[in-house]
Fold each of these.
Amino acid sequence: MIRVLFVCLGNICRSPTAEGVFRDLVAREGLSDKIETDSCGTSGWHRGDPPDRRACQEAKRRGIMIDDLKSRETRDSDFKDFDFIIAMDTNNFDTLTAMSPAKHSDKIHMFLSFAPNVGETEVPDPYYGGDGGFANVFDMIDAASNGLLAHIRDTHL
Ligand code: 4NP
């Protein structure tokens, strides 16, 4: 089993959207028995909360259900348990790198490194922005999910 963990700050906007989009892609490709997904936040501010209503609405509009997900904070065992630890922005990446045992730090990647065509390095935090931010974030996540799955196929399957 290949385990993929998506990480943002609150685990209520970007990373649950990424988990939902990637989980749907994996299922459509018939790979659910080979690839497992999860998400978490570098903060515990929203522990136990479902995704932000605006993230749920944007996902639903694109045919993806994420209402079942619940926020949790990153834990030490994540660095051992997961094969890919995917940061949404540089702040998340730096927090993860500081937390990770050195032997696992090569598991940590910036999500948009799998979507060079997007032309950005970070998935921006949409929490304080308008609803348009969620559509933009969804498009980035969709592109990077496809790139990440292609990378996993090339290197692990
Ligand atoms: P996320 O967005 O990291 O994409 O889940 C945020 C959610 C909540 C907060 C910040 C970002 N917050 O400050 O509570």
Amino acid sequence: MIEQTAWKAAFDVIASLEEHGYEAVIVGGAVRDSLRGHQANDVDVATNAVPEEVKTVFKRTADVGIAHGTVLVIHPLSPVEVTTYRTEGTYQDHRRPDQVNFVSSLAEDLKRRDFTINAMAMTGHQEIIDLFGGKEDIQNGVIRAVGEPVERFKEDALRMLRAIRFSSQLGFKIEKATFQAISKQAQDIHFIAIERIKAEFDKIFTSEHPEKAIQNIQQSGLAKFLPGDFDQQSAIWEKFRASKESWKGWALFCLLQPSQDIEVLRAYKCSNYEKKQVENILIAYQLLTSTGWTKKDYFTFDIEVLTIAYEFSRVLGKTVFEPKSKLEIEHIKSNLAIQHKSDLVITGHDLLKWSSKKSGPWLKETLDQILIEILENRLLNERQQIKEWYLNELTH
Ligand code: ATP
Ligand code: MG
């Protein structure tokens, strides 16, 4: 539904621009995704009107990317990004330039786009403008550079990783000459900021076919110029089921590193939250596949972490004796004698009173011990019982 309103808003915007004598079309991912019969992320409009002209046509606009020729039109149904036809001027350092040149023809705008499947336009009458065979490439599941692939990757090295990311999102193969050009220019990837590389990996790790990306990264030789190890991974990635959050993918990537730790996440500048989540999954995984989980482990890790660690033990073919399913994990966890530390009926205060000892590290250790006794069902979470257990412990 959200998508329907975005299309409706975009068609309205096109109609308004046309009424004022300008040309306007839908471009990029939305055209590609509609031809594939998939939902589009966003529906972008391109026009021969320059930003100042766009702003005179609509009452409400916001300058979101004026430097790139983009004006956000605030349509009541959905905001629409309207970008003036442009080329990208000169490329320095193999990155997309900040400066752009406005041009008057749609054909020139389409020519600077990366892949044939991304270089189509749709008119207000829903006619497809396809100058480079994008439709056919969609039908055949092919990612092909617009123009001379080596030149296009020399201009902007990120396009190599974008090709690979689209291969994993769409399940398409990369056309031969385009793939060879990636092999040839692979080392140029070092010109690209790691944040932008990471953003592509986030998309790969939340896509349907990460195994395609991992395989392409390895076989093209791009792996040599990216942090981390990509060897022999694609068969394992085939069994990976992505979630909305990319850290699940980052966790498997870490697990497949020779060091099996989160070191590689630093190189990709992952967030502290991502690092923490991945670290928990790795610890839960190591425990599960070495000794198995104690009740304390079920208590400590949240259900998502436990489930993912379990999934990875299956993906990597490790035999574990318990649990036997995700359902069993949920069952064991929800049936723990207590769910939170605060559910304990006693506190450190009580221990101090009962023992007449001075405070110290022993307090936390004893509380932990009590927690384990309760979780293992050897002790009830009741004041009197805990006191007896404790006084008995003291005399031993
Ligand atoms: P998504 O669904 O992931 O948003 P998209 O195709 O919309 O996919 P964007 O990154 O949003 O991808 O870019 C929008 C369009 O701009 C692309 O379809 C492509 O035509 C063009 N484009 C984006 N990045 C580049 C680039 N580095 N080089 C050339 N063209 C690009
Ligand atoms: Mg997009």
